[in-house]
Amino acid sequence: MSATRTGRVRFSIVAMLFLVTAVTFADRSSMSIAGAALQADLGIDALTLGYIFSAFGWAYVVAQIPGGWLFDRFDVKRVYGIALLCWSALTFAQGFVGFLPVAWTVASLFLLRVAVGLAAAPCFPGNARIIAAWFPSSERATATAVSGSAQYCATALFAPLMGWVVQTFGWQQVFIVLGGFGFALCFLWARTIHSPRLHPRIGAAEFAHIEHGGGLLDLTPLPATGKPRQRGHLWQLLSQRTLLGIYAGQYLSNATTYFLLTWFPVYLVQERGMTLMAAGFAAVVPAISGFAGSLSGGMLSDRLVRRGHSLSLARKLPIVTGMSLSACIGLCVFVDSDAAVLALMGLAFFGKGFGTLGWTLVADTSPRQIVGLSGGLFNSFGNLAAITTPIIVGYLVSRSGSFDLALAYVAANSLLAVLCYLLVVGRIQRIELKD
Questions:
Q1: Which of 80, 147, 340, 428 could form a Cys-Cys staple with 335, CB 3.0–4.6 A?
Q2: What is residue 3's predicted lDDT score, i.e. its pLDDT?
Q3: Which domains does the chain have, with CATH numbers?
């Protein structure tokens, strides 16, 4: 059924998710844009910078399961809106730590990055929960790809701007600008997001299209459950081979994402000899490639579903193909020209985007009653890479004096993700919750 006949309200919902996710990832990557200038200004080494990069990830991982549980227990719109306000305020506050002594600046940045990770934790489970409510199965991969592609679009939109801000005004101003963007989105969020049942502009045809296609329809919470039952739900998720394979695959594939969000601009400045502004513009190449790959992979997956292919083929084919291409990042070790490096990075991030269907798999396979909890667990596993990747890359660079081993590490993670989806993840189908 065409979008014209069914209505377009659901597309405004995914557009809002795209905007919020773009600002979220801009907040995450703000430290990478400021990283080289911050390192020079404070006189810290690569390993210390790696720990600052990882600070977000420590809290983000710890808070994922509680964050996902919040969406199963409380109103999704309200929880997400509060999280958006908090992470915007915390990002804004990072712009003022430069007035402190150096030791305090490092400690304050680390603690504020931890707090940003706590505040941002519910957001991706929230995206999955909202998409599961608003989109039928035949459109879910595309909707997930659109919202997920914001992680690449954020770099394309903000990296040149932030590079200019750092070079012109100093690294502290990056956080003030991004915090201001977040505050503006808080008001837009309150006006835009509603559940399908309560949206003032949805028509009967669009509501029926969502309902008949398997949309969950509500953003309101389930009845409260006690702690023993919550632990039982968690155990059921961890005992499913399919879900464990999806969770592990997300961790492995996220090594590429967190290299882009943390060390990539530093790599361009220190290894390739670019200026901060040139690095900001160069970061647009893999970002746009990832954006194009994400949309292409999502649309291909949904097209395969509409043509009658199984969910297993429709979801796994883009993932396996994309993560195989993502391993091309390791070939940067063997080329000398900046143009060749950017071409390989573009190909690698196109592949990473093409295979970014993990959240679609969460919506396809998780028990209906605990999509938020499953999403939180999925993001906990996946964002362990936010801790390990910056630290391991920092260690390898510090020990070897170059990025060669670091690039090989990222490429190896992509190949292991391919094996995980081929050998561990089984048939893609919804798992039923047991009493």
A1: 340
A2: 52
A3: 3-423 (1.20.1250.20)
